[in-house]
């Protein structure tokens, strides 16, 4: 079935299943069962065997009863989408939190099977009136990820009739670019307007500023800042720590990394942004048409990663 057809037949988040949205069809075992009953009826009529006719009609009555119980099993079931997951990167799995509820609290939904076709299915043997669950989907690309249509299926009670429906969600999940480890260097962008009243200053500035001390070398620090005298004295790799009024003019740009391929640039810059945020360093961001003034912290990181995730992306 096409994706468009599934969306047309699907219920929305939180909507209860009714007779208009529950579909009942015999599965493979059910088709074999029906064919067997028809053959038995033909045999009984041809040979006037009342016992065979009785067994065949009894089997058909059981099949019809299972249709009713299959419908009643799904009637009133609703699936709601919980809070949106955060900090999802391309190539990772996304866990979709779901809340399953039953309008008729007198009975539980049995042998419930949920699937999307984009990850492992989940099977819930006995679903109470309120039940939390989650589905797993893979996110291969950056940008907005549309939660796939969920197929709801049950073979209760005898495994002869397949009751099924679909549930769709309008929510979108933002997927950040996949980070690729790399060496990077902050740039001092001339002519870029920078506010000097925001937060702490970057410790990666160098030039004619006064040295405020030494700190241990970490990946991303400029090689020019290494204090070779300290290394010669056996004190390990130490870099000069500067303090200056213009420390906030440091930017992460496409010249900060050694790559010219767009997707690789975006992945490397994602790693650099995450690393700088982890080290609590203030920096600005300038990449092609994207410009974000200097800042630091988790919110600053999310603003940058959102712009990178949506840059030149057809899923915007």
Quantity of strands, as a count: 17
The pLDDT mean sits at 82
Helix/strand order, N-terminal first: HEHHEEEEEEEEEEEEHEEHEEH
**Order of strands across the biggest sheet?**
1-10-9-5-6
The percent range for helix content is 25-40%
Largest sheet: 5 strands, antiparallel
Low-confidence stretches: 190-211, 243-247
Roughly what fraction of the amino acids lie in strands?
25-35%
Q: What's the end-to-end separation, in Å? A: 26 Å
Structural class: alpha+beta
Dominant shape: rod-shaped
The helix count comes to: 6
Radius of gyration: 31 Å
What does this entry look like structurally?
With about 325 residues, the chain is an alpha+beta fold. About 30% of the residues lie in helices and about 30% in strands. The protein has helices spanning about 5-10, 30-45, 50-75, 230, 260-280, 300-310, and strands at about 25, 75-80, 90, 95-100, 110-115, 120-125, 130-140, 145, 150-155, 160-165, 170-175, 185-190, 210-215, 240-245, 250-255, 285, 290-295. Helix 2 (about 30-45) packs antiparallel against helix 3 and helix 5 (about 260-280) packs antiparallel against helix 6. The two termini are about 25 Å apart. Mean pLDDT is about 80; it is low at about 190-210 and about 245.
């Amino acid at each position: 079935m096409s994706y468009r057809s599934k969306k047309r037949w699907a219920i929305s988040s939180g909507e209860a299943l009714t007779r208009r949205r529950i579909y009942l069809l015999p599965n493979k075992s059910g088709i074999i069962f029906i064919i067997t009953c028809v053959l038995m009826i033909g045999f009984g009529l041809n040979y006037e065997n009342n016992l065979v006719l009785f067994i065949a009609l009894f089997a058909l009555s059981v099949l019809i009863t299972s249709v009713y119980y299959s419908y009643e099993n799904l009637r009133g079931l609703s699936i709601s989408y919980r809070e949106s997951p955060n900090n999802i990167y391309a190539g990772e799995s996304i866990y979709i939190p779901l809340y399953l509820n039953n309008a008729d609290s007198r009975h539980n939904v049995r042998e419930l099977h949920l699937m999307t076709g984009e990850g492992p299915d989940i099977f819930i043997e006995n679903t109470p009136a309120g039940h939390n669950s989650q589905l797993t989907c893979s996110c291969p690309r950056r940008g907005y990820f549309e939660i796939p249509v969920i197929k709801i299926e049950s073979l209760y009670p005898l495994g002869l009739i397949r009751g099924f429906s679909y549930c769709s969600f309008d929510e979108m999940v933002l997927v950040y670019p996949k980070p690729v480890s790399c060496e990077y260097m902050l740039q001092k962008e001339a002519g870029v307007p920078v506010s000097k009243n925001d937060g702490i200053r970057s410790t990666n500035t160098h030039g004619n500023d006064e040295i405020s001390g030494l700190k241990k070398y970490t990946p991303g620090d400029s090689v020019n800042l290494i204090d070779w005298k300290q290394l010669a004295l056996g004190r390990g790799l130490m870099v000069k720590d500067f303090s200056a009024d213009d420390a906030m003019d440091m930017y992460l740009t496409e010249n900060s990394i050694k790559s010219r391929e767009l997707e690789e640039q975006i992945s490397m810059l994602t790693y650099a942004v995450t690393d700088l945020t982890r080290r609590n360093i203030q920096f600005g961001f300038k990449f092609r048409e994207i410009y974000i003034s200097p800042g630091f912290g988790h919110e600053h990181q999310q603003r940058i990663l959102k712009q990178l995730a949506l840059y030149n992306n057809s899923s915007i």
